[in-house]
Amino acid sequence: MNPTPFPLRPDEVMGADFGRLRARRQRLDAERAAADDPRRVALEAAIAASIARRAARAASVPAITLDASLPISGEAERIVELIRRHPVLVVAGETGSGKTTQLPKLCLAAGRGIGGLIGCTQPRRIAARSVARRVAQELRTQVGELVGFQVRFTEQVGERALVKFMTDGILLAETQSDPQLAAYDTLIIDEAHERSLNIDFLLGYLKRLLDRRPDLRVIVTSATIDTERFAAHFGGAPVVSVEGRSFPVEVRWHEAVAQDAASKPGPGSSSPPGQRRSATSRRENEPDPFSDPWSGVVEAVDAITRVDPLGDVLVFLPGEREIRDVHLALERRRYRETEVLPLYARLSARDQDRVFNPGPKRRLVLATNVAETSLTVPRIRHVVDPGLARVNRFSHRNKVQRLHVEKISQASADQRKGRCGRVGPGTCWRLYDEADFLARPRYTDPELLRSSLAGVILRLASLGLGPIESFPFLDPPNERAIADGYQQLVELAALSPDRRALTPVGRILARLPIDVKLARMLVEAQRLSCLRELTVLAAFLSAQDPRERPPEAREAADRAHALHADPRSDFIGVLNLWEAYRAAHEELSQSKLRDWCQSRFLSFLRLREWRELHRQLLLQTQELGWRLNAEPASYEAIHRALLSGLPGQVARKDEKGQYQGTRGRRYLPFPGSALAKSAPQWMLSAVLLDTQRLYGLTNARVEPQWIEQQAQHLLKHRYYDPHWSQAQGHVQAYEQVSLFGLVLVEKRRVAYQRIDPVDARRIFLREALATGAIDCRAGFVRRNREVLAAAHAEEAKRRRSGLLRSEEELAAWFETRIPADVASAAGLDAWVQGLDPAQRRGLEWTLADVMAADAAPGHQFPATLDLPGARLALRYRFEPGHAEDGVAIDLPLAFLNALPDARLGWLVPGLLQEKVAEWIRALPKGLRRNFVPAPDFARAFAEAVPPDERALGVALSAWLEKATGVAVAPEAWDEAALPPHLRFHVRLLDEQGAVLESGRDLAALRAQHGLRARQAFARETAASISRSGLTQWDFEALPAVVSTDAGLTAYPALVAEDGSVAIRVYEREDEAALAHAQGVTALLRRVLADKLRAARKQLPLAPKAAIAYTAVDSPERLREDLVESAFEALLRERAATVRVRAAFDALAAELGRQLFPEAVRRLAVAEEILVLYGGLAPKLAPPLMGYAGANFDDLRAQLARLVQPGFARAWPLERLAQFPRYLKAMALRVERLQQDARRDQARMLQAQEFERALDAAPAAPAAARERLRWAIEEFRVQLFAQELGTREPVSEKRLRKLVDEL
């Protein structure tokens, strides 16, 4: 029998039941359950019950009446209709419009609240409570019946409730247990302009949720909301703007407040009227009272009191400490019939009621920014706004919290202004000037952009919402903040190292409703059996410190707090305080407990909050199945658990008494810490707070081994100096352990074999077996020592070193005979015991195995060094330690500068192999291991590569790369690091053959005797060639090279000297070629001086271009640059080849003919550039002050780089021809910038990334810098004016490749 259909539509049952009931029906239908099946009967009963509950809720909706005096009432019908038709509505209701209290009632009028609750979020607990009471009064019901509220520690929501007010954090927490938010059919996100982390997360979450819940309605509202952005975020949601109901509000700025304050004496002042000095008459060195905003508050209240002694005043201050300071200052003023009341979130309900239920006296209400939104403080006529708030920012670079007092945004200032003018005309006294206000940002930075994102990423992962990069935030966080959030979760072992999945620890952290660091401590506390203590500490670190230290009783407070302090750890001091409070809470009544707290300078409210947080954590740990430890935990266990959540907040005291922390941070323990006076060597800090200086708050002594244990997955190990230890019988190395740059272990001996078995075996073979420096029972080792001793005796007898094979060669002998896993004395003994006698004899050396080949052939050590045109004598000496040990060369003074440096590097064939081997051994281990054994590579190189004109290092690098594929920079071969006998010893001989100087540093000899050597060279080579004072080419030819009878080779060249040209000779061909080109150029300038002068004078520079260039340089300088650039372009590389008179005359004639036309051709390009420059330069000022300042700065900087003094000469014509296109692109950019500055800035940042890379490499090759510099200009054209085209293909990928080439 087919079952009878039973209605099941979302609009007939409760929203919280619909999904569950539908799933049950689908399962029964899939099973074809009969109508009389008990399960189907039970389902129909459940559906009927849900329908009945919905009907009962519909019947309980009270009559909706709106306050006609509220502006939102005029838009009621439209808002109700939009709520029925659209899933999202954006309401911009000005202050006093009634949006906060009337929107829930309009939702009820639209039929919402029947299938589920109407949820209304507020950013603060105090607002949620007060608004709930207000709406309940208007609906004529009690709080907890039809209207309820839920905040952190209090919930008053009955089963019949239709409207629920709550903080946004409460709604966010409900997403964990109810991802569909099925308990609600409508959500009102109030005060969305605050853009807290919770609000931004909810806006993104709701955007996705609406796709799955078409029945849900979302209303986003605020007084100072950016409606376009919020509407666009929800796919073009409708927007309703409602005017505010308020009286006129006069804004008085800093100057007016200061003048009013100075005009008359305030209450309590001893100065009679007329004698109080004005702000303008104050002495020059006397401080302005308004330079301190809190004294400015007192002055402002004095001024208000004079004009309106009965009007209530609302004063905004950054925090509770400032409220306390100003409260004391105002109390001393003794205003008549006036009471001073604080207002902040942690205030008790009774004290809050004093603010919202005013008495007959005038009130001065001192509030934090909790009073900016939602709350309406009754009877306020004046607002004093210092323009400051305490803002919490997380530094992703230093990983510290910055809690600085900052300037508020314009939107926040307008919110504060809106707190008055509700009961009559009001005045907002702003303690800053109007220019300051206009320079501030329009809206407050979202908390998402100034907070750590670890908790957000964890929440997204736990809810299965995908990566944070794809989550629809209203303002997506930047990549650096996201990377930091991922890194923090990896550090806490909540994410896998690849950042793709939650770890088991991460899944537990997501269930704990506290900061991820504190949650990680609790997980570790469960493992270390110290959960009882850590729940107390986690609750303490989640709340505000209950210890108070009022200025008037600091010493008494310090003495009271010292009763609980522990000199080793502030955390232990917190546990002591908890035990004292717990005992007092059990023994004392409520009133006596308050007295107990007051006498000990403890905040009763904060202690109560701490206790409530602790209770919630205990409930949460019970849900996880954790048990508290029965016995008190040890000091080590507690602090190891703390370290697990704070692995990067440890530091070591340096010699100056400061603490060097991870990531290069330096700080001190906070002065109030018990560790401030007896600072330990290693310290853990719960919070690093940057106020004006970086301090560690809540500190403790820890041991470095605890840090190693708790941060094993984050440690960096570096091993260095591996070496054979004969005493230990194995290869050892030193280990350095660091955590984010903080060295935990500087130098610790470790067994190297477990770290690098291959390298350890290599060292074992070379330093132990090859030398015999090993203590073991193996008999072959003893016999091998005897063979080595015999070989050394033979070497001493023949008075020659080097007859023994090298350690590498001897180690190579063992390479194939010793197993790969043997690298210690114990391992060797164990292996040898298993060998038969024949195998053991195979490990013994013979003298032939140890000795190298006999003396090298004689041609390996020649008697002379043959050079072009010369033969220099060589001397050999075998006397280690002697100044002339090795090879000495006799060098005549005249040859000093002519001697090729490269040839000396090749030494002599008999020592080349040793020199190359030494070089290879000197390489870093990472390179050296590619060329082992070094003698084999050295020998192969010596056999394969004969000496040539290249430097030895260049030839060796090329050969090694060809042979192994491993590149070694030629600079890696350091001559100075070689043994002295592997470098030539130069004996410098004067003209009489006496030794003038000797040494192995050729450069030093040249620096000392180079001038004298050149003079000697010139005396022997330049007698018939040198001339001075040339003004024209009056000789037939100048040879490129000449030789002398003494075997010297000289290179003549024209040389530019002071005011004339001369002929000189050079020892080196490259120096002569460079000097000759400059000399021919100088001689051509003298010959063509009249034509150069005439060209400059006759060049027809247009007046418009001349005027434009005046802003850069003088027009005369431009003419000179154009003519000079034409001259240089025509000459190019031709000067170096001119050696005969006919060629010089022909070149001079050609230059004379082409000079002026070439200059005119360049002038045309320059004039086009300057005309565009003249039109562009005036446009590079922002149309409004502060508008896109960085963008216009970038444009001006680009223009200055292009058109600068001497630009016409600085670049070739081919490049100058591109300048008009660059300037046109800049003009188009200016036009588009004024339309969309944000897009322009994004493109600008793309280009600036590569310009910074260019600026950061000033030492890069000029050609590479030029390629990148002009590629950036083409990239700017492509970014800002693509229609103009580029000279060459350009992209970010190509630019990055050019950056890599720098």
Notable traits:
about 1300 residues; single chain; disordered N terminus; 6-stranded parallel sheet; alpha/beta; 8-stranded mixed sheet; 49 helices
**Could you estimate the helical fraction of the residues in percent?**
40-55%
Number of strands: 33
- Specify the structural class: alpha/beta
Major sheet size, sense and barrel closure = 8 strands, mixed
Q: If strands are numbered along the chain, what order do they take across the biggest sheet? A: 4-3-5-2-6-7-1-8
Please state roughly what percent of the residues sit in beta strands, choosing from under 5%, 5-15%, 15-25%, 25-35%, 35-45% or over 45%: 15-25%
**Gap between N and C termini:** 83 Å
Low-confidence stretches: 1-6, 265-291
* Mean pLDDT level: 84
Radius of gyration over alpha carbons? 44 Å
Helix segment count?
Answer: 49
Q: Rough shape?
A: globular
Structure report:
- The chain is an alpha/beta fold and 1302 residues long.
- 46% of the residues lie in helices and 15% in strands.
- It is built from 49 helices and 33 strands.
- It has an eight-stranded mixed sheet with strand order 4-3-5-2-6-7-1-8, sandwiched between helices. Strands 9-16-13-10-12-11 form a six-stranded parallel sheet, with helices on both faces. A five-stranded mixed barrel has the order 17-18-19-21-20.
- β3 (147-150) and β4 form a beta hairpin.
- α26 (757-769) packs across α28 and α40 packs across α42 (1141-1176).
- The longest helix has 36 residues, at 1141-1176.
- The chain is globular, with a radius of gyration of 44 Å.
- The chain starts with 14 loop residues before the first helix and ends with a helix.
- 37% of the residues are buried.
- Mean pLDDT is 84; it is low at 1-6 and 265-291.
